[in-house]
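Researcher: Please generate the 3D structure of the following complex. Treat every line as part of one assembly.
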Amino acid sequence: MVTESTDRIVLEPPAPSAAVQARSLYVETYGCQMNKADSELIVGLLTREGYRVTDRVDRADVILVNTCAIRENAEQRVLGRMSELNRFKTANPDLILGLCGCMSQHLGDRIIEQAPYIDLVAGPDNYRRLPTMLRALDAESEPALSLTWDRAEHYLDIDPVREAGVNGWVTIMRGCDKMCAFCIVPFVRGRERSTPHGEVIRQIERLAAEGYREVTMLGQTVNKYRDGEVDFADLLSRAAEIDGIARIRFTSPHPAHFPERLIEVMAASPKVCPHTHLPLQSGASTTLSRMRRDYTPETFLEVVRMLREHIPRIALTTDVIVGFCGETEEEYEATCEMMRTVQFDSAFMFKYSPRPGTASHKRLPDDVPEAVKAERLTAIIDMQKSISDLRNRAYRGQIVHVLVEGQSKRDADKLFGKTDAFKTAVFPRRPGIESNMIVPVRVNGSTPFTLFGDIETPA
Ligand code: SAH
Ligand code: F3S
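Model: Done. Output below.
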């Protein structure tokens, strides 16, 4: 097996050959927006090396699966998929099957023991080495692994090749220093670092030049951004000056890093969308403290209050974990109560999944029975569904502005897109209305997940 334990790659690659130049690449992505952005980076990097992207997995010479390690079921799903993809090797014995992203970093060379047909394993700081690793696999039959951390890696000179769509992701921070007890991210994505602000602005300008009207800045604690004197509020102001960009989003901010000045900047710029994803995790101070989240229910509510005071029509979404180690019925009820108090527009809700290597896995027993976790999850999802329903009903009769993404998946006569408050809206097609336009839609119906309406034409 070819492994490396230092920053320097130890493979001796043959020179690029004509065969390499003609290779086709298929990339499949699991997990969060950060992974989607990383896949675009991988495609940018490999197309620069002459690889050709294909959307036909059965025609690919190289298949890379970019993975998520956040919960155990995410990993199980990918392992199942890898074994399915391995079948393509029967028709194409030269096929290279690679695993990238968080799961690679988490499982390391154990992945090869579990799935010996995997040829390449690269962690999130190692994508720059992919061309070399792929070339080495021409000469070597042993798997190539690259799993180092590199605090200096911002992928500065690589321009992502973006998937078709109306939103462009820009990674402004990599890694995380927060060390929440349940979370694998700091272990698989390494230390927190902010991309130099000049590069962030260059990337957003490039998006604007390519015709994108919406940008989403990405980071695990995006509001902790700092490059010298430039903090996140400054970066938002600078991004808002870029012509052509109509909408700026960011995800995910951390509730402990939300100064009022940032909220003032958000409120002052019409380009910054009135939506914030503010991960709550739990509404009980005791659970939050076991989770090592450095805020309390009270300080969380204070951020919500400030956001709503400065941006009254802001939509708030969140993440919640139920069944964390030692979670009592009262603690769970405190989370439900908090959700009733805040009235989030929507929420991602999860059962706690112990991740090897994290503080909670090492130090706290996973003692909430699976049946109780499942019961709590179902109940909180049901509760949130009725809150989301009420929040969406409040839009009926109002005009929302929708960035058109394309044809509705359920009805070819309809279009869909997102409102500035991040609601999906569906409405009948009209001549001349195309993707990437922002159109006014009068809402006439809703579900907990979608707004329905008609394009409003000037009287
Ligand atoms: N920094 C990001 C978190 C990324 S992980 C943020 O603050 O949004 C996305 C979500 O997955 C977390 O907010 C959390 O709700 C959930 N999550 C993370 N680790 C988990 C675990 N071990 N079990 C269950 N859910 C988890
Ligand atoms: Fe994870 Fe907490 Fe960072 S949830 S990504 S350790 S802010």
